[in-house]
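S.,

Sequence below, as promised.
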Amino acid sequence: APVLYAGTGPATDSNTLWNDLKISLSAVGDTGTNTIVHPIQFNNLTASDGTPTSIDIQLTSGFNASFNGTAASTSSVASLQNDRVFPKSGQLATLKIQGLNPSKLYGLYFIGASSYSTAFTVNSLSKVAAGNNHDGTWTEGGEFVSFNSVSPSATGEIVVGIQDGAAPIDSFGVIA
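The prediction came back faster than expected:
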């Protein structure tokens, strides 16, 4: 089955269709000073095989944004997380995945960034991506967390809460 990839960084391979979610920033650098106006809606995302979908993502509240330089890093993990939106200072950010079939179950993967821990909550279940500082591994609970067999609401939505850990700025960069 086709997979839906969406995030703020580039795809890891040129054969993968990626929904690059572009957010205008006022400055370059990981300062956390780029507050974005909510909500931000990304409509009709495309599946990995090029099939159009009716799936939308909405950044509902609590996000800031930054861009980590002018070019993507060569490491696949680092390039996925090159630019990002994130909560900070304990702020809870929420996003909605919309347009889902209420009778289906979905698998969600959330990739964290750097060495910061980030908590992701879906349907009252929280998981933490501790962050492994781009060590080249792909570890559940390190670089990413997954939620399997997630049921959307009757209206076809899944709401995701994202909250930073102990560091002053923690983040997420990719939804796959």
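The first strand starts at residue 6 and ends at 7.

Coffee later?
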